[in-house]
Amino acid sequence: MDRVRWGVLATGGIAASFAADLVAMPDAELVAVGSRSEPAAREFAERFGIPRAHGDWASLAADDGVDVVYVATPHSAHRSAAGLCLEAGRAVLCEKPFTLNVREAKELVGLAREHDTFLMEAMWTYCNPLVRRIKQLVDDGAIGTLRAVHADFGITGDFAPTHRLRDPAQGGGALLDLGVYPVSLAHLLLGEPSQVMASAVLSDEGVDLRTGMVLTWEGGAQAVLHCALDAATPVQASITGSRGRIEIPHGFFHPERFVLYRHGHDPEEVVADPADGPRSSYRHEAAEVMRCLRAGETESPLVPLDGTLAVMRTLDAVRERVGVRYPGEQPVLP
Ligand SMILES: NC(=O)c1ccc[n+]([C@@H]2O[C@H](COP(=O)([O-])OP(=O)(O)OC[C@H]3O[C@@H](n4cnc5c(N)ncnc54)[C@H](OP(=O)(O)O)[C@@H]3O)[C@@H](O)[C@H]2O)c1
Fold first, then answer.
1. Same domain, 159 and 250
2. Rounded distance, CA 313 to CA 149, Å?
């Protein structure tokens, strides 16, 4: 597997960003695209020089010249699109949030394990070199015992009610699209919380416009997290321990620098290595997928499936508390 052969499923915004990064990687080959429509597949293929354009998902899933499919549909279609590929024996990198709810997430993980096929949530934050450095510092006790995580992700935009961010049928709302990042950061550092509290302001369509969360862990650590679709918040994170803290400035989910404050020491600024590329590059997650495939690993240690399931449980718990339920969903908690 000198060059890993990729397929991209869907032709929207993030599919294009990911494809642009992929075609610049010497050990990756973008060989196919799949779309709900043939013209969209052809247009995307022409744009990125992709040899095969499939006008339906099943043809992409059945394409034996593809090693791994990157699923970039709205969240509501992740379960069906990724499931189709896994059933065809295709490895899958699936955009965040992994699915609408933990029930769907368990189904995908079950399929991957049944077919012994690679599956990973595209939680690129976990593959970011500086985030990995922060995780290592925290695990090594650089700031003592972890006490608190603060993180927010709020944006503004003129989103029509039919936009995927506002449409319940497409898994709309701030939590699944944006809140997944602060929640995932807290999970990365502390694991799964034992208590979840949340409050939200809902839109007329019934998705969350703004959600505040307080998560608590057995040892007493807490995370105070926020996300919003109609407020451009600082998008920062701070991680506080008994002997110091780490501050990650704007864009904490793909940082290019952070500051380590240790009691009794001068602050230390840590900046990204320019060789790691631009901060918005998706190449680190793509590289991790290819490393796993070459090593014959069906799961990434950087983005383990049990961790993804735990994040989905927390997102479900938040939605249950604030009263966001997507069409056709049963109550999400037992
Ligand atoms: N990692 C990141 O930084 C990042 C950034 C943005 C978004 N995302 C995630 O990526 C996913 C897609 O977001 P996006 O911003 O790219 O959305 P988008 O621009 O709306 O594109 C989604 C694409 O999916 C297909 N699609 C649209 N509606 C669909 C439906 N109802 N069922 C099935 N397929 C549909 C369309 O492609 P075809 O017409 O070709 O079928 C569309 O172009 C979301 O889950 C989002 O959370 C991740």
1. yes
2. 19
C-alpha span between 248 and 318 (Å, rounded) = 24
CATH number of the domain bearing residue 246? 3.30.360.10
Does residue 37 line the site of ligand 1, with CB under 6 A? yes
Residue 42 in any domain: the answer is: yes
* Upper half-sphere CA count for residue 33 (Cβ side, 13 Å): 30
Give the end of a domain, one of 122, 147, 177.
122
The pTM (predicted TM-score) of the whole model is: 0.98
Q: Which of 95, 155, 229 to mutate to test the pocket of ligand 1 (most atoms within 8 A of CB)?
A: 95
| Token digits of residue 271 | 């900046």
pLDDT tens-digit readout, 120-145: 999 999 999 999 999 999 999 999 99
- What are the tokens at 186? 């807290």
Q: What is the pLDDT of residues 56-101, one digit of tens each?
A: 999 999 999 999 999 999 999 999 999 999 999 999 999 999 999 9
Tell me the CB-side half-sphere exposure of residue 240, using CA atoms within 13 A.
11
Give the distance (Å) from ligand 1 centre to CA of residue 80. Answer: 14
Same domain, 69 and 145: no
Residue where a domain stops, chosen among 122, 142, 160: 122
